[in-house]
Amino acid sequence: MPISVASIAAIRSQREMRIKVLVATLGIVAVTDGVDALVNLYTQPDRLWPSFVQTTLIAAVMALLFLGLLARANLRLYELKERFEALALTDIQTGLLNRRGFFAQLDRVRAAGGDMTLGVVDIDHFKRINDTHGHLVGDYVIAEVGRSLRDGLSPPHFVGRVGGEEFAIALGGLNPFEAWKTADGLRAGLASIGGAQLPAGLAITASIGLTKMGDGDTMASYARADQALYRAKQEGRDRSVSADLEIEGNVVMLPVLQGGRSGEIIG
Fold first, then answer.
1. Which of the chain's ends, N or C, has fewer CB atoms near its CB within 10 Å?
2. Quick one: pLDDT at residue 256?
3. Which catalysed reactions does the entry list for this protein (predicted)?
């Protein structure tokens, strides 16, 4: 792979800054000493060593000062760039990945060969919550649902907010039943959402649609998960439905019963 000037000049960490400044300083000192020695060799041979020491010290100090300041500015620009890029991929309200960030990470994982299940999570009756209790309560509910989903997952799984009251989850390395069970655990965990900002008697529930991702387009998988979510809504909400767990031979996935009881697979 060819090395570009930009890659050599790029500074991404304090350690990299120190190493590159040191290497560049040694290079400048070596060149300066070489030129100085060549000139003195033909003009003032008796001044060769004193001039060598003097030139080395001056060149080293000047190079370290100039390159150090330049490298610090470069590092600061890199850190700002990283921060702005992170903000561009982050949902401000929840601190989760936003739609762009979620699908970018999902595409990276799939490109690396990750075996993923995609889920769509939608807060039940969210418009009613907003209309009845106001947008401050609605914002609190969104933030708390995001926190609950994030706290309920660990790598290689991840979650993002993809719009309004809708979240997406990516579950890695699970078969359809394991993925459904994990997602349903997240759904059940929403029952613990509370706090002074939540009106008394307001229970937060969500519906989840899941699908195993194949080799096809990511958005095609998202559409299948969204169809499973629609089924969950039609069947009464507050449940998890997988597009991959259907009647097949004598294997049946029983739907999740309303009230938080888990479903099961029988054969």
1. N
2. 43
3. 2 GTP = 3',3'-c-di-GMP + 2 diphosphate
